[in-house]
Design brief:
The chain is α/β, with parallel strands linked by helices and 431 residues long. 42% of the residues lie in helices and 17% in strands. It contains 18 helices and 18 strands. A 5-stranded mixed β-sheet has the order 2-1-3-17-6.
């Protein structure tokens, strides 16, 4: 028995020596995921955590496909020891959620989408949340606003790609001076003097939300059943805002035009031009700039005088996001690629090639942004905007109808404004 015990002790001592020296496993890399609070992808030898022979499908907007392909090629070149293939295909951001939810198994591993679709994607369990390895990257390098559009119920669900899905004031400098462009009253006066139209798509909830946002009403998430939640707004202040807009629309009824923003560029291009200013999105900026040339003016939205106080108009602003499919067969590679496609270098590339306003703080400080009137205006307006997230499907039509009522009704006194506002809120809540 003593011999057996001695032999066992000798074997255990030998095993301990081998373990201390590596035991013949010198060439093996531990690719297991780090424990919470441990190393991150940047610290481990294999940021893919063992994934190889990787095949990823990426969806990008039509005008961003070539840029995305180049970025994906650079990503592949960054990891020469991995076998990676990436197929980049066209898919519009506006329809991305529907396509992913239609068949998640066949959808892209990594895809770009408009931020207002995050609720649908989350409800359909189609998004893989940003993993802990990259949360600090995302929150530190992007604007607080952009991060908010990628966050739902306190969880970071996507990677901000841009910060420019909003609108701004565009004007013909031959009609509206830079000083006049600072106030809504000044713009109307200038357009009146030149007999030119001022265009706002007042019947579209995306734009007409300005009329209630400026009065202090904000959206504050959704209930579990998808019902819209509002902040504790002051109804009288919201009515004051609605009344101020309505008064201007009626005072300048011969100048004000409610129409699609595309009408701004086409009206300015007419000979003689019929439009002097409007509230437009960056997607039309190139057209308007080419029409106006040196007379191209762009600025944040103006103020409006409410009860004797010049009040900044508040807009709705969104972003483009990049999501990771929760059904991806290569989840680690997909997260790594999504993070790469939204870093400073990638966003700078899209800025230079596509004129997309970066959500990345450093990239947004580029001289390119400062020298581009539309992007500079959008950047200035961003601090006076509400994120396009947590919005119920029932929000858009009632708010658009309310906007229409502000200018399209002969009698529009305070009592009528209150009645129409109450009706809009009731319809948003689907009561």
């Amino acid at each position: 028995m003593k011999k057996i015990i001695a032999l066992l002790l000798a074997v255990m001592m030998l095993a301990g020596v081998l373990a201390a020296c590596g035991g013949g496993s010198n060439n093996t890399t531990d690719t297991s995921k780090p424990a919470e609070g441990g190393d991150t992808k940047a610290d481990v030898e294999d940021p893919f955590y063992g994934e190889d022979n990787i095949s990823l499908l990426v969806w990008a907007a039509d005008n961003a496909v070539n840029t995305t392909k180049t970025l994906c090629d650079n990503f592949i070149a960054k990891y020469p020891n991995k076998k990676i293939t990436i197929d980049v295909q066209t898919q519009g951001e506006g329809d991305a959620a529907a396509q992913v939810l239609n068949d998640a198994d066949k959808a892209a591993d990594v895809f770009s989408f408009a931020c207002d679709q995050i609720n649908r994607l989350a409800k359909g369990k189609a998004l893989a949340p940003v993993i802990p390895d990259f949360k600090d990257d995302v929150t530190s390098r992007n604007t607080e606003f952009a991060v908010s559009t990628a966050t739902l119920n306190g969880e970071l669900l996507a990677y901000p790609e841009t910060g420019e899905n909003g609108y701004y004031l565009v004007y013909d400098k031959a009609v509206v001076s830079d000083e006049q462009a600072k106030t809504l009253e000044g713009i109307f006066e200038a357009c009146k003097a030149a007999n030119k139209k001022f265009v706002i798509d007042a019947g579209n909830g995306f734009y007409s939300c300005m009329f209630i946002y400026t009065g202090g009403l904000k959206l504050d998430g959704l209930t579990e059943d998808g019902t819209q939640v509002f902040n504790a707004y002051d109804k009288e202040k919201v009515l004051d805002s609605l009344e101020a807009f309505a008064n201007l629309f009626h005072q300048y009824s011969d100048i004000f035009m409610s129409a699609d923003p595309a009408r701004i560029g086409s009206g300015m291009a007419e000979d003689p031009s019929t439009v002097g200013a409007g509230i437009d999105g960056s997607w039309n900026a190139a057209t308007v700039a080419s029409v106006l040339g040196d007379n191209y003016g762009a600025a944040k939205l103006p103020t409006i005088n409410i009860k004797g106080t010049d009040t900044q108009i508040i807009s709705m602003n969104g972003s483009k996001l990049i999501g990771v499919n929760a059904r991806s067969k290569f989840p680690e590679a997909a997260q790594l690629l999504a993070n790469y496609l939204t870093d400073e270098e990638a966003e700078t590339a899209r800025l230079e090639e596509l004129s997309w306003l970066p959500s990345n703080i450093k990239a947004a400080e580029s001289d390119i942004v400062k020298k581009n009137p539309a992007l500079s205006a959008l950047s200035d307006q961003a601090q006076f905007s509400e994120p396009q997230i947590n919005i119920a499907d029932t929000f858009w039509s009632p708010v658009g109808t309310l906007g229409n009522k502000l200018f399209n009704t002969d009698k529009f006194d305070r009592a009528t404004i209150e009645s129409e506002f109450d009706k809009a809120i009731s319809n948003v809540l689907d009561e």
